Amino acid sequence: MFKSYHKLLLSAALVVSAATSAAVAGDKTTSRTYENGKKVIDGGATYPVVNGKTSAYFVNEKAHSKGGFTYGRKPTDNEIKHWDIDVMPDGTGLPEGSGSVEDGDALYEEKCASCHFDFGAGGAGYPALQKGNAYEGVKSLKNQRTDSTVDAPRRVFGSYWPQASTLWWYIKTGMPHPAPLSLTDDEVYAITAYIIAINELTIDGEELDDEYVLDREKFLRLKMPNEDGFEPKIDGKDGLENVRKYYNDFSNYGNGTRCMKNCFEGEPVIARIQGAGISDYEPPLSTERSMPAKKGGEMPGKKEYEASCSVCHATDAMGAPAVGDKNAWDAVIKKGMDNVYHNAINGINGMPPKGGTSLSDDKIKQIVDYMVSQSK
Description:
376 residues, mainly alpha, Cytochrome Bc1 Complex, Chain D, domain 2, two-stranded antiparallel sheet, two-stranded antiparallel ribbon, 5% strand
């Protein structure tokens, strides 16, 4: 949860809260509400079978009666060693190594810029890695875009992430996207140094210029501007206990009380976000707002088109203008609708009069109108 900025709950927090609420109320319906005498905080709960069901769902009672469920086996020390590749804020898991900002710049251009663009600007669906000075950016996290003049929060690595260790770990294990785990430790230090530099972060008050060489010792001295921006505190040996205590104190979230209904007096105040959304669609979104014909629920001519004309006009394979092809129909309509009607009724090129049907002239015109309406 993001600290103090209106105390918005993350989805994980909602899961945890829901999983532990039964325990708070003394509800005995869940068998994993407590584990080893302590509340579970992973959101897990196993429900007993009552009248052939767990909650609203029927179950195979025979399968449940054969000893219940297990939670797998204890992993071996060797398995843990190979799985345990994360990097913790205190330096656990962080290897020795070094790399300069200059080398990181070159590696970024080679392996990262194709997705994250020059200088980590982001684009084409890929996230930005910086948005100016991170120390200024952290101030923007309190911004609420209730007015078009207010800038959005800068939620990028430098201003938003509380720990730099996540950056090192993510680059090492997940980047570059087509070839994760392909970078050496020194290359990861170099790219990390470059990203720290473009965020204008400092280590011991020193800015990272091109010649700056980042190593393990220096990296662990980096203090992120938003280090204290999230709650509860999950790091360290007391992390799990901190989470338990935090979610057991309802004053930390919601409206400060444990409730399932009537949680607010009156209607909650909703802040309308301004300037959000995408407006530069290509091609532009249609502004057509015509209502379909009410008679029979279908536009006149649609049924006859599907029965008699779609065999040639559904695609351009037969040489006829395909329904839905705006450019093809624009060329047809430029000749004038009277001319289009005339050709449809009397035939043109390989098309026989009325498409080979015995429909009336008025019905043919309805089919033409339908095809034109679907091709704008």
